[in-house]
Amino acid sequence: MQYSKLAEVYESLSKTTKGLEKKTLIANFLKKIKNEPEIIYLLQGRFFPDYDERESGISEQLAIKAIAKATGIKESVVVSEFRKLGDLGKVAELLLAKKKQSSLFSSKLTTQKVLESLRKLPELEGKGTVEKKMNIIIELLHASSPIEAKYIIRTLLNDLKIGLGSGILRDSIAESCFSPKDIEEKRQKANLIQNAYDKATDFAEVFSLALKGEKALSSVSLSPGKPVKVMLYPKAKDIKDAFEIVGKPAAFEYKYDGFRMMINKSDDEKISIFTRRLDNVTKQFQDAVKYVKEHVNAKTFIIDCEAVGYDPKTKKYRPFQDISQRIKRKYDIDKLEKELPIELNVFDVIYYNGESLIDSPFKERRKIIEKIIKPSAFQIRLAEQIITDSDEKAESFYEKALEDGQEGLMAKNLEAIYKPGARIGYAVKIKPNPEEFDLVITGAEYGTGKRAGWLTSFDLSCKTKEGKLLEIGKASTGLKEKPEEGLSFVELTKELKKLIMSEEGKHVQVKPEMVVSIGYQNIQESPSYTSGFALRFPRILRLRPDRDINDIATLDEIKREVKKGRR
Ligand code: AMP
Question: Structural domain tally of the chain?
């Protein structure tokens, strides 16, 4: 397909904020790409499936240089236009229009060519990489019309600005492939697509299967080595509430305070580890690789577990924030492994020796982990568990968990299947102090006086069920002045600067990527924020590099807390 056709769709999508119009536009477009489903990646602003984390690695600086070279316009001019427009895509469009006005230009760029070129970028390594990357971009820009250039640059910078979330894409695929007649059928087909996506994490694959029909769609299976969305757990108020949700008897397990790891062993014996945001962290956790190699007896598997940090000297468990740096660290990995060791607490398995287990009841899955894992203290073990129908026994187990320094309990329905990506009541979490939410930072403000140059106030957002972000407050406490004292303004500023989309005076708008845990005193209704609520006395507790916007609190959860507060 001509890339210009896709650019037209991008343009139309960016001109409407209405979900319904977007769905119709995409559903119609999908009908034209039945033979080229990979164009969906470009529609998402990507060039690989969602489970594949390879990125272009193009910085704004490099994009500026490439635009200057491709148009023959001075870099300083590109930079000053960037300051004015706040979007390098628009800058490329403007400058290319100036350059190409005189010559009769007809674009021959195809989506195939764009995909091929973009896919070369992450492969480039070593000497001369920057030069080679630049040449690829320049070649694309030379072949582009101004509008095409805008979207090439935006794709490279991972910010397409067309307001297309995965919910809209899912509904559009349902619409395009099944033309559902009423709301009920729409919901049902969208669910089918979602279920398939949660296993495949690849919209092009899901689209191809949906074209073949419902049966093909429900045949998506897991394959170790390819990350799957984890199942998520809603909150229960207390033990009684937990029993009401998951039924009696139930399994109660320690809720460990670490971070989620899906550990895979594929046919070729390769171990790979993914976080809940599907980041591949295998390199950072060679200790975990060793533990599963030595202590999990199975040819292939996907196990779900919580990695918990402990002090190497005292052997005391440490809270998540102490080990969170291991997730992103790319250097000194060995040293960090010794300083911040982890123990794996395995609580589920969804694939074992060639078979998917997601449709097996939890009690069967638990039996399998009991069979295949040889526990070894401070390396790998099974989540501490009891099965009971007694409130008293569950209560005393809860107290024991808290005494042991864990976060609380999980209560699990013994018969429930595993539902990737879903937050349904097959299992629930019970924590004593729920005055805490995970939220995403969507903006920030520079400080003054001795804090000048640092971002010191942070706009926080929750989301609707459909994934729309809504502001719910601003936090400026909880951070330290000096990096050696803990999470500091310096560190947060450094990370957020990479995400800045636009600046106005002292305020910056940032890409919604950084998830933080926020403590607060209570929640009030408030017209000042788009959510209609404001957190009172919010403070930043910790960064959550293992989470993304899919994991943040929803407006419904906030409303539930508000209601509880009133009781
Ligand atoms: P939260 O992070 O508060 O949403 O709680 C859910 C998380 O608790 C899961 O995503 C896991 O990372 C973690 N967790 C700790 N222990 C368990 C357990 N025994 N079963 C399931 N999840 C657990």
Answer: 4
